């Protein structure tokens, strides 16, 4: 597994890097036989150290966790425990996902835009009505998944929603975490 361990205005020494590689590697290998790479970033927020970890699995899924503590090693341990909990919770599904899928998850490139806040004076008036001001453009990847895999990916990433291409019909779908704790699924193709 390839590791990218870095710090934002923090010097990550050899001892911490070795500890991260050993512990995170052991945690991920328990549940996924072939992780491809991991990115671990340490940062500070006032008196706390924050550890963000993202692990890409060979199946195309991504697991993400975050930890915070007053000690940098404790922040990593909290992050690692959360990653372990997520992977343990989805262990059976991860194995089933890998077994049923002959090829890794396919991704499509898509444009992603950051719009200015909805203040009327920040929006441009054009012939076809009010248009929000684009303040950033970037690319993102949209995976092709089943609905169950999309829900699992959303949970593993700790994200409130996931946009994906439905592998059954190729249409763009969204799964999202609802305020009542349930998961919502938006599929425009199922409209009457």
TrEMBL record:
Pfam families: Ribosom_S30AE_C, Ribosomal_S30AE
Molecular-function GO terms, alphabetical: ribosomal small subunit binding
One Gene Ontology biological process: negative regulation of translational elongation
Keyword Coiled coil: no
Family: Belongs to the HPF/YfiA ribosome-associated protein family. Long HPF subfamily.
Stored PANTHER family: 30S RIBOSOMAL PROTEIN
Assembly notes: Associates exclusively with 100S ribosomes, which are dimers of 70S ribosomes. Interacts with 100S ribosomes.
Function according to Swiss-Prot or TrEMBL: Required for dimerization of active 70S ribosomes into 100S ribosomes in stationary phase; 100S ribosomes are translationally inactive and sometimes present during exponential growth.
Protein name per the record: Ribosome hibernation promoting factor
Originating gene: raiA
């Amino acid at each position: 597994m390839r590791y990218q361990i870095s710090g934002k205005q923090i010097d990550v020494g050899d001892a911490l890097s070795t500890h991260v590689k050993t512990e995170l590697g052991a945690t991920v290998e328990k549940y996924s036989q072939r992780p491809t790479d991991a990115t671990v970033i340490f940062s500070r927020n006032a008196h706390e150290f924050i550890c963000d970890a993202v692990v890409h699995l060979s199946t195309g899924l991504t697991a993400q966790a975050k930890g915070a503590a007053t000690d940098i090693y404790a922040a990593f341990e909290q992050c690692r425990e959360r990653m372990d909990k997520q992977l343990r919770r989805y262990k059976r599904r991860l194995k089933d996902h890998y077994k049923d899928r002959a090829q890794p998850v396919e991704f499509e490139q898509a444009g992603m835009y950051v719009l200015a806040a909805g203040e009327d004076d920040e929006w441009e008036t054009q012939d076809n009505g009010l248009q929000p001001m684009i303040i950033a453009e970037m690319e993102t990847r949209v995976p092709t998944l089943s609905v169950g895999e999309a829900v699992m990916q959303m949970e593993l990433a700790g994200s409130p929603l996931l946009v994906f291409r439905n592998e059954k019909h190729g249409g763009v779908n969204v799964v999202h975490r609802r305020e009542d704790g349930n998961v919502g699924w938006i599929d425009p193709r199922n409209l009457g």
